[in-house]
Structure formats: C-alpha cells, structure tokens
Amino acid sequence: MKLSVRIGIGLGVLVVAWGCASIPGLREESSSTYIRVPFVRVLVAENSDKIELQADGSFAIECLVGKKQSVYYSSQPVGVSSMNRKLIVRDITGNEIESGLDEVNIIPRGNSNRIRLNKKRYRGIVKIVPDGATVRAINVVYMEDYLKGVVPPEIGPRKENEIEAVKAQAVAARTYAMAHLKQYVGQPYDMKSSIYDQVYEGVDVENKLVNDAIAKTAGRVLTYQDSFISAYYHSTCGGTTDNIADVWDKKDIPYLKSVEDGTACSWSKYYSWREVFTEKQLRGRIEQYLSSDRGRQITIGPIQDIAIMQRTAGGRVARMNLVTKTDTYRFAKDRIRWVIGRTSNPDLILPSDRFKVLLDRDPAGNIQRIEFKGSGYGHGVGMCQCGAIGQSRKGWTYDKILKHYYTNVDLKKLY
C-alpha cells in the first residue's frame, strides 16, 4: 500500500455532476474504472460503527479533507469508522492509514473488478461519509448497472418466454429511479436499497436474462406530459388494479387508473388467500395497532360486527367499520391492511385490501371466528407484476404491457 500523487479531479465531482460524456474515476495506468452518466447514488449501509471493504482485485482508497486529496492502493480489506465526526481508515491489521477525513471513496481497479461490502458485491464505486458517531456507505453506480441489482429481486427468477415482462419491469424501475433522483434533499444519496425505494442487492443477484432485458430497453422511461411518471407496481392485483386516489391519500393521477387484468395474474400463489382469526386474536391485533398509533394503551372490548362500507373501482375495501359494544372504529384505504395484519405471520400486513369478511357466530350471536377471504398481494396501484408475466406468456410485448397498466403514457428513450 503506497501513497500516490494527487489526482487532479476528485470523485466529489461524480456525485453532483450531470453531463453528456463519461465521467472517469481514478485512472491507474491502462486499467480504469469509469462511472457513466446518468448514475445513481444508493445508500447501502447506515448506522454502522465500522464498514469493512475489499474488492475482487486491487482498489484505490481516495481520502478527502476539504479540497485536499490523497490516494492509496490496496488488495487487502480496509475498515472505515467514525471518530469525532470524521473518518478514519485502517488496514487489515488495525493500523491507521489516515484519519480526520470528510469522505473516503473506494474505487476498484479494472472494469471487471467489484467492491465487496457486507458480503455483497457492487459495481461502480463506494463512497463513505460520516453520520455523527456512525458511518454511511453509498454505492455510486451507472443507472443501467443499478437496475441489474434491482430487477431480479423485484420480479424473481424468470424464463425466456417471460422476458417481455422483465423488460417492462426494467422500464418501470428505471423510470422510478430517474423520477426520484435527489429526492432526499440535503442527503448524499438518491435512493435507499430497501423497500423504501427499490430493493437493490448488487452484483450477486444478476442473471443473463435480466441483463439482456435491461440492455434491450436501455435508457427507456415512461412519461406523461413530458414528466417521468410515478411508476408504482405491485405483485398481484387479483384481477383489477386501482385508482391511486382510492388506495392512498393522494391526488388522482390520470395514468394510475383502475384497469382490468382478467386472469393474467391467476397463476400467482397470492391470487386467492385467506386469513382466519379468533375474535380474541383480531381484537388483540387491533388494540395493538391503535395503541401504537395513538401512543397510549387502547382497549376496544369484544367485536360485535365488521362492516364493509365502501369499495374501490378495483374491488378493494375503501372504508371499513369495526363495531364494539361501546364504539365504532373506522378505517380507510390501504391502512386497513396494517390494522388487520395476519395470523399466519404476525410480522406481516394483510396481503391486500381486496377481500370479503365472513363472521362465524355462536348461538348467542357472539363472534367466535373471523375469516378474511381475499385476492391479490400489494397495494394494487400501477403495474401488476404477475399480470405482466402472464401477459408476456401470451405474447404481449413490453410496451403493450406498460401501456395497459399505465394509461395514456409515452415510452421514450432518454439516453
């Protein structure tokens, strides 16, 4: 490991610049790593006392303090931690390399080299910044390479006759990412690598079919009146998607309308489902939810009735009343899934709001058992992923799939 000469262009430029040409990383002889535009900054680790990094081969360690830059090279793991709200870099034996840093960039040498962080491998570079007493890691990666780590966990393993659905998923995921760049104002990242944005798993989930689908739709996005659409998608609609305003407390959006899916997603294991509670179980679940929501202990008493008051265009429950001896509790829209939860897995919410309620009473009229019999998985807005796969099997092209679920949109090649 040796100290290199200063490099004229720091990677700080990479995380703020947009342009038409390629933006190079650190260049080392004939073996170079490049970050192409458009790129995305993905938060891949946070609240960490220490982050350990390495690469498949050798890598550069760029250390920044203000405008001052120093660069080291290593083929062994290094650790980055926070000390007095600054960063300190240590080698594999714990010896200090440099401290008092504002930022550290880990840059693999060579285009086939990948960074390793928390047992996952990433394309691009990894930027480390302090966050109080902890540190954050941000993967700065070309948009198309980002999608290679997003689409597989989002749509699952697919076959060749389903590639049009994979293309549709790639366009939807790309559109979502492009629309949400710089969404976290004042933060050094654009996206989180979890369900808060899109699940991103890095290099090790990549597969040829998905990479081909991404390459064949490179740069293509969905727009409405020349703006990126909000490309919401979900697993299984159960036969019909829904208007966004009926599911969430959001304004009506012309391209997120209820559309018929027919039996396209009927192959999904969530096309039909059931959850059964005893009265005591459901009462306890609702008391737990209300207590958490209101910040105090809530006791509701035995449930006397559950009434569906209104349904959406797609058949989901829009308003539901839960009646006890002393009060009536009113729940609306997608919140209902969180209120009810599941008996099969108490950590999960109800698969969907597209259900009917069956009440089993004893001879005295007291509720003993409550069954929620439903269809679909997810919120029901935008593209039905299992429906897209079903349509692909029938020979639909990806553009036809997208324009079915997102009405009146344009498909454009952005770059």
Characteristic key phrases:
alpha+beta; 415 residues; disordered N terminus; 6-stranded antiparallel sheet; 26 strands; 7-stranded mixed sheet
Mind explaining what this structure looks like?
Helix content is 19%, strand content 35%. The chain is of the alpha+beta class and 415 residues long. It contains 9 helices and 26 strands. The longest helix is centred in the middle third of the chain and has 17 residues, at 163-179. Strand 11 (115-117) and strand 12 (120-122) form a beta hairpin. The chain has helices at 143-148, 151-155, 163-179, 208-216, 244-247, 279-294, 335-340, 385-393, 398-405, and strands at residues 23-28, 31-35, 39-48, 50-55, 59-65, 68-74, 78-83, 86-90, 96-101, 103-108, 115-117, 120-122, 125-131, 134-142, 191-192, 220-224, 227-228, 233-234, 273-278, 303-311, 317-324, 328-332, 355-361, 367-374, 383-384, 410-413. The strands form 7 sheets. A 7-stranded mixed β-sheet has the order 6-5-10-13-14-3-15. A 6-stranded antiparallel β-sheet has the order 9-8-7-4-11-12, with no helix packed on it. It has 3 domains: 11-143, no CATH class; 149-245 and 379-413, no CATH class; 273-374, no CATH class.
